[in-house]
Design a protein that fits this description.
Ribosomal Protein S5, domain 2; Homoserine_kinase; nucleotide-binding; transferase; about 25% strand; amino-acid biosynthesis; alpha+beta; single chain; ATP binding; six-stranded mixed sheet
Length: about 190
Amino acid sequence: MARAFKIKVPASSANIGPGYDVLGVGLSLFLELEVTIDSSLAHETNDDPNNCILSYTKESEGYSTVPLRSDANLITRTALYVLRCNNIRNFPSGTKVHVSNPIPLGRGLGSSGAAVVAGVILANEVAQLGFSKQRMLDYCLMIERHPDNITAAMMGGFCGSFLRDLTPQEMGKTRNPIGRGASRTFWG
């Protein structure tokens, strides 16, 4: 049975005023993914070691230079990380991800943060993990340690966030494979 869904993640601006690495704002410029999963088309994804064919619109930032292998692209690498943390080795057979990305790369608009957020949401959706936004935010922060951009991309709007060290008790209980910190978030 085929499934299709879309993911839309905003660009962000951060380090606002005195809120260095704390304050961020989601913008109205969006990274968009169109995802289809159709096991009857599995033969089309066999060339990728993780069952995922990735494509970008020609208008996307970095179209000619962004990696298209699932184990090299930031979006799909992030998704694979989350999947593997949950004992899922690869994408479902026949997974296709088409990306439209107008966010300028390396220009201070949170392109890597948006890619990480999109990857975590992608994993949550393809594997139907049922994570809350807070849990997805935790995964994002394991990969991209800038809570200002990540939180604004995940939650949208004007956000404040910071990382705190985990207590020894939390370190013992957590399933966080990196275990370096937890986030606290507020937004409005």
